[in-house]
């Protein structure tokens, strides 16, 4: 069974930094991409940042220039370095892994973590 576990969330003042981590566990042969999604209070879940196995990245406009996503393919882990945090960044951050294959030539599936709370105070 594949599981994603997030860590690194917390309470921080505006202008501060946090580093989120997510590790996928289980018998995993490959993962196409991993990313971070945020659900702010009263809003839909939205993409914050995503990175493919080859290193291609994309960011939400609100994250560009402040957040950096990276991954360790060998560890099936993804990280989100968040700098210059703003109150608008507050929300539950969910780790996502898509195109996960338990066997190299088997079917793929998507997985979500349980989320980690990030609160930025003004």
Spell out the helices and strands N to C. Answer: EEEEEEEEEEE
Terminus-to-terminus distance: 40 Å
Q: Which radius of gyration do the C-alpha atoms yield? A: 14 Å
General shape? elongated
Helix content: under 10%
Q: Could you tell me the number of beta strands?
A: 11
- List segments where confidence is low: pLDDT < 50 over at least 5 consecutive residues: none
Task: Summarize the biggest pleated sheet.
Answer: 7 strands, mixed
Give the percentage of residues in beta strands. Answer: over 45%
Give the integer mean of the pLDDT values.
96
Put simply, the count of helices is 0
Quaternary: single chain
Structural class: mainly beta
What does this 3D model show about the protein?
The protein is mainly β. The chain has no helices and eleven strands. It has strands spanning 3-7, 10-13, 18-25, 33-39, 45-52, 57-59, 67-72, 77-82, 91-101, 108-112, 116-121. Strands 2, 4, 5, 6, 9, 10 and 11 form a seven-stranded mixed sheet that branches. A hairpin with a 6-residue loop joins strand 9 (91-101) and strand 10 (108-112).
């Amino acid at each position: 069974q594949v599981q994603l576990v997030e860590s690194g969330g917390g309470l921080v003042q505006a202008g501060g930094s946090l580093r989120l981590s997510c590790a996928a566990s289980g018998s995993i042969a490959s993962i196409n991409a991993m990313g971070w999604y945020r659900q702010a209070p009263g809003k839909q879940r939205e993409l914050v940042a995503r990175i493919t196995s080859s290193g291609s990245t994309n960011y939400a406009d609100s994250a560009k220039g402040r957040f950096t996503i990276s991954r360790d393919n060998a560890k099936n882990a993804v990280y989100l370095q968040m700098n210059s945090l703003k109150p608008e960044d507050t929300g539950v951050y969910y780790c996502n892994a898509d195109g996960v294959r338990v066997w190299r030539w088997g079917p793929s599936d998507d997985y979500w973590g349980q989320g980690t709370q990030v609160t930025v105070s003004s």
